[in-house]
């Protein structure tokens, strides 16, 4: 890593303005599993409304970071906040603000899509009179109308991914966390998913992971590179004409 690339990484990872509460803030966050350090003193701010891409090979700590944010894991050290709320102390409030799509999203295979979404709405604490409207909103938003009465087990991979995204959006969360959202999709479905993610930016903050450079490049406003649990750098995509060279300079 050169001095100038370190400078650039520090500049692009600069804290957000003091007046603005970041959507996500990690300060010295570590996660250890026994002797394995999955996340090593991660410090990072993610701004409201941006699409932020986490890039890194398998095992670099991307999923661990997302699971910490979703409250499925507790950090071993450091402080992690979502909209200023502590993920450990204020975990319930944090969960209300987050929609999480894990890499293989559980869809309750025996349920029909509409039933599944209504079930998830109730699980997220939506009052009964609001459930039908919330389901209709996400069915419309994700173009699931054609499959709403189908059992989730009968869905194609593309529709499955959209149904997983719909359940994550059912409570209209500020922040969406998508673990490898284009994994296993065919080229057309990848393009659709990319457009969908871009259309969510602004109203939602999106944190997505991928190990495919071109995916992150085409979708994200900023991108971070992780390796062995460490953050190697952060770049603004618009300032990065050659993501591949930057990535290679870091890893
Ligand atoms: N429950 C666990 N117990 C022990 N080690 C774990 C556990 N979960 C993850 N790890 C280890 O932590 C490290 C980071 O894994 P993580 O899944 O966060 O990486 P990743 O970048 O998301 O990879 P992938 O793309 O394969 O999901 C790896 O070395 C992994 O083996």
Instruction: Indicate the structural class.
Output: alpha/beta
Q: Which small-molecule ligands are present, each listed once? A: adenosine-5'-triphosphate
> Can you summarize the main beta sheet?
6 strands, mixed
Radius of gyration: 18 Å
Strand residues, percent: 15-25%
Q: Give the uncertain stretches in residue-range form.
A: 1-11
Physical arrangement of strands within the biggest beta sheet: 6-7-8-3-9-10
Shape estimate: globular
CATH homologous superfamily grouping: P-loop containing nucleotide triphosphate hydrolases
CATH class: Alpha Beta
Percent of residues in helices comes to 25-40%
Total strands: the figure is 10
Description:
Residues 1-11 have low confidence and may be disordered. This protein has a single domain, classed as Rossmann fold. The protein has nine helices and ten strands. Helix 4 crosses helix 5 (128-141) and helix 5 (128-141) crosses helix 6 (157-169). Helix 7 links the parallel strand 7 and strand 8. It is globular. It has helices spanning 3-12, 62-69, 91-97, 113-123, 128-141, 157-169, 187-200, 213-219, 243-250, and strands spanning 24-33, 36-46, 51-55, 77-82, 85-86, 98-101, 175-179, 205-210, 222-227, 230-236. It has a six-stranded mixed β-sheet, sandwiched between helices. By secondary structure, it is of the alpha/beta class. Bound molecules: adenosine-5'-triphosphate. The site of adenosine-5'-triphosphate (ATP) has 12 residues, from strand 2 and helix 2. Belongs to the ABC transporter superfamily. Keywords: ATP-binding, Nucleotide-binding, Transport. GO terms for molecular function: ATP binding; ATP hydrolysis activity. Involved in beta-(1-->2)glucan export. Transmembrane domains (TMD) form a pore in the inner membrane and the ATP-binding domain (NBD) is responsible for energy generation. It comes from Bradyrhizobium australiense.
